[in-house]
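Task: fold both queries, return tokens.
Query 1:
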Amino acid sequence: MNRFSKTLLTVATATTLGFGAAGTAQADALATSILQLDPLSFNNNLSPGVAGAILINGVNITVLGFNQNASASATLNGTTNAVTVPSGIGTDIQPQCVGGGALNAPCPGSPAPDGRLTNNVFGVFSTAFGDPKAPSVSSADQNEAGSPVANVLGIGVPPTPAKVEASAITSLKGGGSGAANTQNGVVAQFQFRMTTTGKIDILFDAKAYLEAFTTVGRPNEFAQASYSTSFTLTGPDITTFNWQPNGTGPRALASGTVILDPFSLNDTIASSGPAGGTHLPPGETLGTKRTGSFQAETPTLTANTIYTLDARMTALSNATSVPEPATLGLLGIALLGLGVTLRRRTTS
């Protein structure tokens, strides 16, 4: 074999071992979305900015209908686990989880589960804790318990505010694609008749976390995490009340008033190549859930009038990690050189 042939073979081997290995390891991507409202209650309004006791069905209002529904789904490299609860009172969907190959680790029920994915733990996946790490995983978890109005179909006796929680995690180690979607929608819907004229206060404490990460220098990586929260009240005699907490503090709505709104519960963040890196919402600390208290007042509601209140919440994550074209191109050139070398050896 001549010196030129040896050089081509050396380049081909080095490229296969070096760039090929990089292509196998690939860049990593992570998207985390967690949102927990606990406790959540609808309360009597005593005066501007001051809330009284939780509403009690049959005392302050008459609840004519109450419904909750929820869904959770997780997808990883084409495999999906999903559950939908179309109607119910209090729903707790077990984590819908995909990952870890044959053992399905670290999903719940696997031989080596990750404790952060345990039902209703809503643990943080973050670069602060060494994520993403093998194996890749996609998981969605959901929980709704209690009622923001006491004594509704046996819920909240004694008065127990609601708990509404959702998480969506997509963590890719070594490439692939995944997504998680939790429509905790709490879609909780109340249809009620006021027994006295007055306002209602919506109160809750929130824990929230968003993070998106892709490896720096990789152009074909993408991660996105988002959550949303809204409260909408409609009735024949009011302008629609629509509160979507956005972190802008006290303010007047088109209908109603916001008293406390410390940070946004309607947000989307993303990280993509080649810049990559870890992205968080403004004011969030890496690896730590933000906490705060929220409050808004409805407009004045009239006695003996029927109103409908919808509360919705979602958490979503998605990420992709694919081979770099440049890496594959170099590998192809190297293999072509190796082929030329071998043909020359055959004909010489």
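Query 1 returned. Query 2:
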Amino acid sequence: MRLRMPRAVLHVPEILAELESFYGRQEACFPTDPYEFLVWWHCGYPASDAACAKGWDSLRRSVGVRPQQLLAASAARLARALKPGGMVPELRAMRLLKIAARVEDEYGGDLCGALAGPVSAARRTLKKFPSIADPGADRILLFAGLAPVAAVPSNCPQVLVRIVRGRESDQYAANYREAQEVLARETPANGEARARAYLLLKQHGQELCKRTRPKCGQCPVSSACAYLSKAAG
């Protein structure tokens, strides 16, 4: 009978250090202003950093991104500007018009100011906008410097759950909640530390720790990963 070596146990700060050593320091590739992020998020579909960046660059060049600029443009013109970002540009154009109108009419063009105050109230405000749920709201609040929430990348909440527990839940909300609880418990309660954690986990989820067919053989924290340990057992 062959004995398996015991799994190394790393805490979140050590996991993040290993990921940063492997991937390098990560920087946000998306706007950190709350209003601009909402616009950027609808500049690509299916939403990805690359698709949103293409639509965002096209929109800025041909129309502009300020609320007044979007509202002055026709839906057809916005759709043409958004086309480089991917599918359903007409639908995304209508959503941008709704976002711009709400920011202008309800918040006097100052969404960031409207988010000042309790985190619960800020989340409710953000969730009034199209396609924004708790993960998106947390991301916006963290990167805008409005609250040091333990935000988890919405497209890969499984990463931290796999490393520390082994198997993620079938329920997205459960994975997000568990990952958020681990981050809140093991990272300093400041925006810089939690933004760093967010970006490193996001990179790892996109590159190696994918939702399906993760590339465990290339993982820099494989020796400490409960997921790989259980798979091997």
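Both queries returned. Flag for query 2: The radius of gyration is 20 Å.
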